Amino acid sequence: MMIQGGYAPVILRVALDTGAISREDLPEEAVLRAHVGGTGLGLYYLLREAPPDATATDPRTPLIFMTGPLAGTPAPSSSNYVVVTLHYETPYAAATGHAHGFWAAYLKHAGYEGLLITGASPQPVYLWIDDQRVELRDARHLWGQDTRETERRIKAELGGDPDRISVACIGPAGEALLHGASIKNDRNHGAGKGSPGAVMGAKKLKAIAVRGSGRVPLARPQAFLEAVRQWEANLFLTPEGGVPPASVGVRRAGITRIYHVLGKASLLAGKNLSDPQWGRRYGQNFVEGCARWRVTPRPSYNCQIECAYDVHITSGPFAGMTVSPCGGGENTEGAAAMIGVEDPGAALCLTEFYDAMGLESSTAGCVVAMAFEAYNRGLLTPQDTGGLHLQWGDYEAAMTLIEQMIRREGFGAVLAQGLKGAAAALGRGVERFTVHIKGGGINLHDWRAAWSVLFGQIIAGAGVCWQAPGVDALAAEPDLGYLRYAPGTVATLEEALEKVTQVRRTQLKKLWEDCLGVCWFATWGVKDVLRLAPQALAAAVGWEDFTPEEALAVGERVANLMRLVYVQRGFTKADEFDVSPRLLEPPPSGRAQGKSLAPFLPQMVDEYYRQMGWHVETGIPTRATLARLGLEAYADRLR
Predict the structure, then answer these.
(1) Helix or strand or coil: residue 353?
(2) Following CA atoms 392, 369, 472, 591 in sequence, which dihedral angle do they give, to the nearest 10 degrees?
(3) Which residue in 52, 153, 184, 490 has the fewest CB atoms around it within 10 Å?
(4) Which domains does the chain have, with CATH numbers?
(5) Residue 203: helix, strand or coil by DSSP?
């Protein structure tokens, strides 16, 4: 076997129903080379171990944490872990939630490439991994605590340097199996897509604490360091004739300085996507507020980008509060902009509340925003809401709703059914105001002005998620020949089908990168990364060659593995068009006013299937496609 570095030597398996903990070797080299790690290796295990009839919260459903061969190494932003399980909102899909911080690196340094967790504990527990010492501990005293307090208490309980311990945990939302429940770690980071916090809560697993004292071996250290030095040199480089990579905009808490740009571009998701012009004011208020206060960038492991940040609010009604968001704008949009909160202090504190509850705002925030719009349009009354007045901007009413959702009390009990379930329960045409794709919350900006991003969210293979970004917004992809942004909207079918090509090509690159164990901001739009990342992988592991073409084949293989989960769990082509009306209606104002993707969507889906080598009539991979990708063993799962 040629695996000489990069990978930690074992996978840790934990059976919560019996308390058994065991170690098993990594799969054989051919499997590792085909799937690499992260999302790819997680899906490999999910397809082998998830019963076809299981639901996300079924004890039989595995909860899989995977790092990647570059996690915990000197590669740029080598901090990524992915949680792979069954999707809580989209029942036929896998869930692939990504997070950063220090947890992945510490797990690798403890000697583990990933965790496979099965069963459900009879009482709350947390897992403590301290190099080769691994044990389950009683967590009954932590049940009910928010993510901030859980992290603090566990570190105090374990002792030693708290900065050398990383805690991934759930809050009350995960304990309550709430839609949108996330797994938080290192205060500023967390995995939310597919509601993995609800899966963790169903297993009565409160937290996983990790401390590792080792290092990740490198097969050819000098070759590895040369590749990552070039990679780092390009990290903030704008290619000649091109646009900056995504890392430039978010560098050192950059969102606090550039957020108003999203509003000007009609990309800021305000008032449940009902008023794109309002987003301009929200973005400007946010930037002006952060300029007055103390902003501290917060890194992840080996991270030069430092997109996450703390804000200590020093003036206004929230003076004295410190909040710890992740690095993008989606979290504050879901929590605050979607319900019309204009005060930047209130927006930050509401975002902090979501994070403390362990709740991803792109899902739960959209449920709350749906209720707010229905109330402001007169479809809901105080009699329906239990006396709550859901006027735009009322952050206190939103917090009350979240608390009710967690307790499943009052009007919150209705909203706790999730985006589609709550809309169906309320009736009265409220479904017109939902913002979802396949039942899940989108990565929350207003993508109706960036059609390739919107189409990429629609066809993403793990329910709605960042997977196929296209090149309309935030970054281009010079390694794929896209130096500049494409037009956000188009007028002809021919132009719309070109967006399909952009989506598919960027999807394969993104899915390959999701297997490495590095943050996407260290690759998205970075010049020469499609050459340098494979070089770094080959040098770390000991493979003599690993080409860009092989890397993109890994991405295509991952896309097909996701589709195989779909097929196994009952997906039909009609499900591809399970997109809320709000996302397909023409925006009433802004850059995309009067324009809609809807007329082109059926032809775009057909073209995507053709380019992927899937049956156009069903969206199922052909046997020839599976054979080309070395996935023949899965052919008997095709209908």
Answers:
(1) helix
(2) -40
(3) 52
(4) 10-211 (3.60.9.10), 234-433 (1.10.569.10), 455-514+547-637 (1.10.599.10)
(5) coil
